[in-house]
Design a protein that fits this description.
Elements (H helix, E strand, L loop, with lengths): L5 H25 L8 H23 L4 H10 L3 H6 L2 H18 L7 H50 L5 H10 L8 E6 L17 H11 L3 E6 L2 E7 L13 H4 L2 H7 L8 E2 L9 H14 L10 E2 L4 H6 L3 H18 L3 H10 L4 H8 L3 H15 L6 H18 L11
Parallel strand pairs: 4-5
Antiparallel strand pairs: 1-3, 1-4, 2-3
Helix pairs in contact: 1-2, 1-5, 2-3, 2-6, 3-6, 5-6, 6-7, 6-11, 8-10, 13-17, 14-15, 14-17, 15-16
Length: 416
């Protein structure tokens, strides 16, 4: 840029205070929210504007100092002001200040050529100030994102460990991440999505970006964390179903949101833990989901997603004592206590490969009696021996109950 005279520099230096004050007055007149700022915050805006005007004069002497001088004005802002002002509001302030600069500063030129120089300088300086503001807010967003990621990892780790001594800290940290303390929770475990090598796509280099977008579309809050090579997701659980025709998979997983979030996981099985009352109880859901994901390889035809309690037989084979306890307490014991030879009927039915008449002959009863007993079994346990999965679950539960009654295995594990 062409140089301006020493007299013009002196006029500019003397006018910086008045130009800044005129800019703040214009902000107050044109922005309804400006007057709602506190007196200290408005004084901070004036200080930043004055420093910006002074930096303009210094930059005019040395245009190579642009990055330092434009960023310096924003670094000098009071911390409270930086926290209260949004990026949109900052852009509005920069626009008004630039318009006032364009109106007042060229009038201080000593000649027509100097006026053209000052007009171009104001436009260029205003552009650099806008970029500096964007840089400051981008840096703040990155810092907040990194902090939120660390906080989220701490919450997920605490949920997995289930340490009761950290309950207060878990709720406080989750609330800082936007989690509703009153929301019910459910845990999903699966493989993380692959990283998209093309940064132009919505997922970009962050594979979890797509998961968060899916959660936003589903209207569900999520907390994400790594567990070994797998992705663990804590989601707020809403069991209300839409009035229109539901997806058939809803009968297995219980929520349309679960289906939406399942599609955001990478290839492979996705296991859903049970819905629990809140975040502090999510340890139980996480434990079952993780146990189910370890055992799901034993059921190649498992649906996606699959409920952790649908994997009880596989979890027992994988050494999950809580799954064995669930089978004994919720399947075998109700059959035994209901009487009516329900347990013997189930075993006979399975031993005769589901042939109703052969089962009835072995029990010396009418086939309708067998049908009635099998319906009772389904009502008590939720599983029917005529179904392949139901047969596996019932056979395993009865076998475990008999082993424990004989003392061949330890007593049921009552710990969660």
């Amino acid at each position: 840029m062409a140089r301006v005279s020493a007299d013009t520099y002196r006029r500019l230096e003397l006018a910086t205070g008045g130009v800044a004050s005129a800019g703040v007055a214009e902000m107050s007149a044109r922005l309804p929210w400006f007057d709602r700022l506190t007196a200290e915050q408005r004084a901070g805006v004036l200080m930043v504007t004055q420093l910006g005007a002074a930096n303009f004069v210094a930059w005019l002497r040395d245009p190579d100092a642009t990055p330092r001088l434009t960023a310096e004005a924003f670094r000098s802002a009071p911390p409270d002001l930086a926290r209260q002002m949004t990026l949109r509001q900052t852009v509005e302030l920069v626009r008004i200040a630039t318009e006032v600069f364009e109106e007042r500063i060229p009038a201080l030129a000593g000649s027509r050529s100097e006026r053209a120089t000052l007009v171009a300088a104001v436009l260029r300086f205003g552009r650099e100030v806008a970029f500096a503001a964007a840089t400051v807010y981008a840096s703040a967003a990155e810092a907040r994102g990194a902090w939120d990621a660390r906080l989220e990892a701490l919450v997920v780790d605490a949920v997995v460990r289930g340490d009761p001594h950290t309950a207060g800290a878990v709720l406080s940290r989750a609330a800082a991440l936007g989690w509703d303390p009153a929301a019910r929770a459910r845990v999903l475990v699966g493989n993380p999505p692959a990283t998209d090598p093309d940064p132009r796509r919505p997922s970009g280099p962050d594979p979890l970006h797509g998961v968060r977008r899916a959660a936003y579309r589903a209207g569900t809050a999520v907390l994400l964390g790594a567990h070994g090579r797998h992705l663990l997701m804590i989601m707020s659980a809403d069991e209300e179903r839409p009035d229109d025709a539901p997806d058939p998979r809803e009968e297995r997983c219980g929520s349309l949101a679960v289906l939406t979030l399942t599609d955001a996981f990478g290839p492979g099985a996705v296991v859903a833990g049970p819905v629990v009352a809140g975040l502090l109880e999510a340890h139980e859901s996480a434990a079952r989901a993780l146990a189910g994901h370890r055992a799901v390889a034993a059921w190649p035809g498992a649906p996606r997603p699959v409920d952790a309690d649908d994997l009880l037989p596989e979890r027992v084979l994988a050494g999950d004592r809580s799954a064995a306890t669930t089978l004994v307490e919720e399947v075998a014991r109700p059959l035994r206590e209901a009487g009516g030879s329900l347990t013997e009927t189930v075993e006979s039915y399975l031993d005769h490969a589901g042939v109703l008449e052969a089962c009835a002959r072995s029990l010396y009863v009418h086939p309708n009696t067998v049908r009635y007993r099998l319906r009772r079994v389904a009502d008590l346990t939720g599983s029917h021996p005529g179904d392949a999965r139901g047969a596996t679950l019932l056979r395993t539960a009865i076998a475990l109950d008999r082993l424990r009654a004989s003392g061949a295995t330890p007593e049921p594990d009552t710990t969660p």
